[in-house]
Amino acid sequence: MFVVVASTRPGRVRIRVGEWFRAAAEAHGRFDVRFVDLTALALPFMDEPNHPRLGTYTRQHTKDWSAVVAGADAFVFVTPEYNHGYNAVLKNALDFLHKEWADKPMGLVGYGGIAAGTRATQQLKPVLDALRMAVAVEAVNIPFVTNFLSPEGFRANDVIEASAGAMLDELARLGRLLRPAREVADLALARR
């Protein structure tokens, strides 16, 4: 599973939410957890000359991102809510690729103010559907995120911890269900 942190603002403190979720996923024990920080990934805005559906990538950063996404069994996006939506850097990271996302479970950790990131995560769902991802109904929504930040990191309350556990359980279940679909797709690609 890749935990993808979508916040890229300079001076951000919300990476702590991603670090907390990574630790929660590792403690859950059903996933080999990896971490992707979109700031470090530093994808430029759509610089590939061909449509992502073709998979004919010309840039090394796209080939590297493709290998990361293709090799993952599940994803969790940790996303802030900016102006009632998700940020452009996350949309760009999604749009760089196409087939690599298909038939993979997706979890969403949203955070913000009073809306707890829910407007951003709801806007993401149609995009993830178009990429043929299976979005877990269970989600982690963190209201007033700054109330949970301390110098030591993000400190979740019992409700947030329970939400994370429920989402991780569902991602494991979806992963088992979707694995045969990915294996059939991989076999079809190998025959070409």
Helix and strand topology:
Blueprint: E1 2-5, H1 15-28, E2 34-37, H2 38-41, H3 60-70, E3 75-80, H4 88-95, E4 105-111, H5 118-130, E5 134-135, E6 140-142, E7 149-150, E8 153-154, H6 158-191
Parallel strand pairs: 1-2, 1-3, 3-4, 4-5, 4-6
Antiparallel strand pairs: 7-8
Describe the structure.
The protein has helices at 15-28, 38-41, 60-70, 88-95, 118-130, 158-191, and strands at 2-5, 34-37, 75-80, 105-111, 134-135, 140-142, 149-150, 153-154. It is α/β, with parallel strands linked by helices and 192 residues long. It has a single domain (2-191), classed as Flavodoxin domain (Rossmann fold), CATH 3.40.50.360. The strands form 2 sheets. Strands 1, 2, 3, 4, 5 and 6 form a 6-stranded parallel sheet that branches. A two-stranded antiparallel sheet has the order 7-8. Helix 1 crosses helix 6.
